[in-house]
């Protein structure tokens, strides 16, 4: 008996040792799989322990961070981020620890470097290792920079229009400077904006004196400072800077970059950096318009300098108008007849720009637009209709865009519109239009930016949105696949056991039973095939491919894909009408309605399925458009938020739980298809999102 007991103990000890070795081997296999999977992605995959310290990271880590993974192993992930963003990172990781269903996301700055670098941090709890965190890091710096550049150009365009309006207004004839310094100072992000004029003393030496000034709140005024009056120009600037000003070029830098006698004066005024733009009247140096930055030493970009130089040129022209009464009258008459003042503003604008009447007749075209469309001389386009530059099939979208711009209102929402070049080639442009009063008559100014870079960025954002949706639905999709897979396998196992290794005759009852088993297995396989097809459609990135799409098939696929999000919250009701097919990209439509259905589900609390519903309604409206309503009985949307829900990066979800891109991407996709999307809601009584699309040509109705 004693020997038997020892033998049993040895067997148990050996079994435990083998189990430990197996666990170690399994961990090594998992690590290798993690590294191998991560090497296929541009994004960084990482794993953290319960204290937020780095355990594993994919090879992309070194490309993003600039240091090998082993140098960071064991360090807290939050140290990677800018000190001002670390509290947000800690909060996100705390949230992720308690969630294994939906990843939390946030855009943060990396620490170090002269220029800010942005990454999107996504994290979720690791269900396999309690207390651990899995996550990704994606470099979003190019997209942030592109968005900031686009916003800067639109902001400056609005300021340029306002400057032109004020310079031409009769009431500003006695105070040109103060009428424009405020809008220019604000758009330039300056602490001060001012004008100096040149004049000579009795000995003929060139002096400069300040004539006007605008200051941001809290910034000291210097107009009455004796140091700003009758200062020798050759002491205020270095020789090479004076040469730049005489050539009509801008000068910028820190106070120390300017004249040694002038630098202490500038520093005493709290200036960290400044920009000076020359004013030239009748071909002679007249003075300059300047901008101070008292907050930091940020330089003004090339685009900003070029746009502000256009404003300085407009001011120079206005000064020429006011030197003598005769010259003023002649120049003002020419200005109001040929729009020369406005043409001067747009002449140096880096993007293609046109000025046109409210009904689309072109009044002024800058060289960038002529070159963009393949014309030698902008005059070749004058008098033509703007819609004549647009493909016939896109003219309705362009017309609706132009109607959005109202006199004195903000810019119409940008639209992608294909324009036709002189040689017949089509270029994709992003149009932004402002409504203005030109010589007292309503007019429009339209900027056409090349859409290639932004389209690439949009494709990345759409793909990111798809991946985010897939990540959120991953558990549900796995469940949907697991159910049919389990009974396919069990049925096949049953057949394997029943038939045995040796062939034998089968009776009629056995044949019927086995036939039913095979039918069940085939049905399960078909369900899995449909799910895989839906995943393939959703992940397809062929943005240019459009075809006649069965809308109901798309909605059915969306309902199946989002079932795990809907099931604990509401009943799904399909109220389909008889509608024709629509001309669209199936994958993009899938993305639109999946976003809308998931949003509807998230507006409803879990646990009250009998009280709530999500209803999908399709119909044809009086204009022949196909309309899809996604209606929910959730919490609704407040009126002050409803008008902003389609804005990029606007979200009503908790920090880290939404990027604010979903509805913006839906809007972009639907508008590109020539359709429209709108929302209506009453707080506490749910919301309805309405998508209108055009029918495919000669499409057959689908019941």
TrEMBL record:
It catalyses: ATP + protein L-histidine = ADP + protein N-phospho-L-histidine. It holds the Pfam family PAS. Residues 30-100, 338-409 form the PAS domain. The keyword Repressor does not apply. Keywords: ATP-binding, Kinase, Nucleotide-binding, Phosphoprotein, Transferase, Two-component regulatory system. Residues 172-308 form the Phytochrome chromophore attachment site domain. Residues 476-697 form the Histidine kinase domain. It comes from the Bacteria. GO terms for molecular function: ATP binding; phosphorelay sensor kinase activity. Residues 1-22 are annotated as: Disordered. Its EC number is 2.7.13.3. PANTHER family: HISTIDINE KINASE, SENSOR HISTIDINE KINASE. In the N-terminal section; belongs to the phytochrome family. NCBIfam families: sensory_box. This is histidine kinase. It comes from Corallococcus carmarthensis.
């Amino acid at each position: 008996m004693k020997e038997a007991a020892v033998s049993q103990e040895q067997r148990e000890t050996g079994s435990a040792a083998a189990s430990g070795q197996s666990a170690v081997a399994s961990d090594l296999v998992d690590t290798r799989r993690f590294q191998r999977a991560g090497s296929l992605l541009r994004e960084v995959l990482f794993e953290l322990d319960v204290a937020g310290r780095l355990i594993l990271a994919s090879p992309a880590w070194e490309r993003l961070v600039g240091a090998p993974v082993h140098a960071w192993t064991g360090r807290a992930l939050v140290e990677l981020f800018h000190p001002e963003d670390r509290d947000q990172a800690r909060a996100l990781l705390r949230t992720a620890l308690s969630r294994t269903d939906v990843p939390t996301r946030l855009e943060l700055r990396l620490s170090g470097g002269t220029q800010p670098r942005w990454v999107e941090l996504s994290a979720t709890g690791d269900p396999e290792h309690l207390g651990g965190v899995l996550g990704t890091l994606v470099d979003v710096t190019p997209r942030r920079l592109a968005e900031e550049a686009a916003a800067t150009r639109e902001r400056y365009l609005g300021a340029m229009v306002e400057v032109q309006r004020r310079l031409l207004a009769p009431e500003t004839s006695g105070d040109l400077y103060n009428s424009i310094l405020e809008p220019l100072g604000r758009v330039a992000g300056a602490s001060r904006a001012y004008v100096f004029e040149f004049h000579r003393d009795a000995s003929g030496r060139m002096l400069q004196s300040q004539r006007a000034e605008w200051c941001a709140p809290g910034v000291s005024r210097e107009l009455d400072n004796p140091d700003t009056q009758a200062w020798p120009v050759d002491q205020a600037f270095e020789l090479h800077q004076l040469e730049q000003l005489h050539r009509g070029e801008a000068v910028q830098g820190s106070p120390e970059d300017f004249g040694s006698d002038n630098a202490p004066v500038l520093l005493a005024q709290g200036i960290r950096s400044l920009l000076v733009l020359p004013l030239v009247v009748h071909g002679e140096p007249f003075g300059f318009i300047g901008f101070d930055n008292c907050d930091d030493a940020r330089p003004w970009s090339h685009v900003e300098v070029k746009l502000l130089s256009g404003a300085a040129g407009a001011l120079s022209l206005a000064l020429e108008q006011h030197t003598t009464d005769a010259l003023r009258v002649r120049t003002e008459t020419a200005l109001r007849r040929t729009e020369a003042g406005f043409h001067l503003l747009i002449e140096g604008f880096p993007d293609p720009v046109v000025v046109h009447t409210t009904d689309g007749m072109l009044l002024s075209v800058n060289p960038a637009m002529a070159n963009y469309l393949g014309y030698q001389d902008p005059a070749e386009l004058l008098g033509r209709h703007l819609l004549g530059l647009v493909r016939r099939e896109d003219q309705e979208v362009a017309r609706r865009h132009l109607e959005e711009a109202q006199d004195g209102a903000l810019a119409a929402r940008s639209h992608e519109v294909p324009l036709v070049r002189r040689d017949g080639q089509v270029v994709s442009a992003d149009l932004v239009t402002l409504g203005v009063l030109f010589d007292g008559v309503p007019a429009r100014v339209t900027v056409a930016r090349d859409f290639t870079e932004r389209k690439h960025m949009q494709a990345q954002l759409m793909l990111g949105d798809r991946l985010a949706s897939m990540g959120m639905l991953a558990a549900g999709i796995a469940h949907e696949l697991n159910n049919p897979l389990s009974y396919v396998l069990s049925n096949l196992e049953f057949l394997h056991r029943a038939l045995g290794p040796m062939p034998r005759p089968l009776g009629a009852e056995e044949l019927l039973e086995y036939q039913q088993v095979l039918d069940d297995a085939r049905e399960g396989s078909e369900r899995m095939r449909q799910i895989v097809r839906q995943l393939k459609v959703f992940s397809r990135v062929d943005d240019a491919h459009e075809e006649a799409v069965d809308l109901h098939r798309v909605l059915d696929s969306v309902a199946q894909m989002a079932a795990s999000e809907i099931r604990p919250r509401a009943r799904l009701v399909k109220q389909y009408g008889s509608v024709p097919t629509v001309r669209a990209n199936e994958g993009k439509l899938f993305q639109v309605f999946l976003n809308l259905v998931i949003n509807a589900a998230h507006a409803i609390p879990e646990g009250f399925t009998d009280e709530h519903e999500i209803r999908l309604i399709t119909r044809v409206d009086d204009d022949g458009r196909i309309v899809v309503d996604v209606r929910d009985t959730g919490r609704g949307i407040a009126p002050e938020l409803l008008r902003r829900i389609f804005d990029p990066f606007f979200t009503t979800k908790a920090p880290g739980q939404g990027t604010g891109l979903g509805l913006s991407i839906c809007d972009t996709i639907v508008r590109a298809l020539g359709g429209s999307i709108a929302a209506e809601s009453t707080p506490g009584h749910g919301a309805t999102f309405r998508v209108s699309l055009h029918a495919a040509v000669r499409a057959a109705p689908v019941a």
